[in-house]
């Protein structure tokens, strides 16, 4: 079973301090950066409060049924009727695209993703099968039941610029962090070392329903039941740790900041094979890669 890296009580207190609710039910973790916890997953809001219509960006789009929560948080934070200038995706797994089609249509906005993730967002490829044997928890055991079929954004889908910029997010750049999926990306702001990690690593034991419920702060590898290339996942965590982030929000779990967080992230990077890689997975010996099309089975 993969091992979690728990944080000290001091680090947990830091994490809890980030969890102070604003009136809009988001958690402000850095200037112009907030996130909203939606049971299983997080979405992030990039833009200053009161930014108004087209003055902000949504990162990822939650689980099915979360549209009202996201929309109400957005309007409370940015203003009544305020629409984003774009939605940007870390990746397209079902728990990150739950209301993407509805929101993109309602807000009439483009959706940006990495080119290697595009087949999952333009209707041409299903995700590889989930792996129920990893992690030893209920969330992993249910992996065969999770939706894998692509969604089709049609003309709304755009590719992230090759220069690393992110439309609507000045000062931020995207970093290709594959492993959990072939086109997974994370978002980085140099000015204050803020990181939106997606599922490159997470801060809760996502394989366990209990861990998901209690959300104890811990540093953890990517959710193992959908990770398709463990060598790439290791390299991605190592690359993100080398950035020395000051504040991190991942796709699952609480946001974290400071030296304790960085120490835990470095330990995850250094001991990745021991603490993150499962003992058994179909993807250990046969990773799913874009190059040989194994990452893109037919829908």
UniProtKB/TrEMBL annotation:
**Annotated Pfam families:** Lactamase_B (PF00753)
Q: Where is the Metallo-beta-lactamase domain?
A: 40-252
Q: Which SUPFAM superfamilies match?
A: Metallo-hydrolase/oxidoreductase
In Swiss-Prot or TrEMBL terms, this protein is called MBL fold metallo-hydrolase
């Amino acid at each position: 079973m993969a091992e979690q890296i728990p944080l000290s009580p001091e680090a947990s207190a830091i994490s809890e301090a980030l969890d102070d609710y604003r009136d809009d039910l988001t958690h402000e973790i850095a200037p112009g950066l907030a996130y909203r916890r939606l049971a299983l997953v997080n979405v992030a809001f990039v833009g200053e409060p009161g930014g108004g219509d087209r003055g902000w960006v949504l990162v990822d789009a939650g689980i099915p049924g979360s549209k009202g929560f996201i929309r109400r948080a957005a309007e409370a934070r940015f203003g009544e009727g305020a629409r984003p200038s774009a939605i940007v995706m870390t990746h397209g797994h079902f728990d990150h695209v739950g209301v993407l089609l509805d929101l993109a249509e309602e807000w009439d906005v483009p959706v940006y993703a990495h080119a290697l993730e595009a087949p999952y967002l333009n209707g041409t490829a299903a995700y590889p099968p989930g792996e129920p044997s990893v992690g030893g928890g209920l969330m992993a055991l249910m992996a065969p039941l999770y939706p894998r079929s692509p969604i089709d954004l049609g003309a709304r889908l755009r590719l992230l610029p090759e220069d690393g910029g992110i439309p609507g997010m000045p000062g931020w750049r995207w970093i290709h962090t594959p492993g959990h999926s072939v086109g997974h990306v994370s978002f980085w702001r140099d000015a204050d070392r803020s990181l939106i990690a997606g599922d490159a690593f997470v801060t809760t034991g996502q394989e366990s329903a209990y861990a998901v419920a209690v959300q104890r702060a811990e540093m953890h590898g990517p959710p193992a039941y959908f990770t398709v290339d463990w060598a790439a996942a290791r390299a991605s965590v190592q690359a993100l740790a080398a950035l020395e982030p000051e504040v991190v929000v991942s796709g699952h779990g609480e946001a974290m900041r400071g030296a304790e967080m960085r120490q835990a992230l470095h330990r995850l990077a250094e001991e990745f094979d021991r603490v993150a890689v499962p003992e058994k997975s179909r993807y250990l010996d046969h990773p799913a890669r874009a190059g040989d099309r194994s990452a893109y089975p037919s829908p």
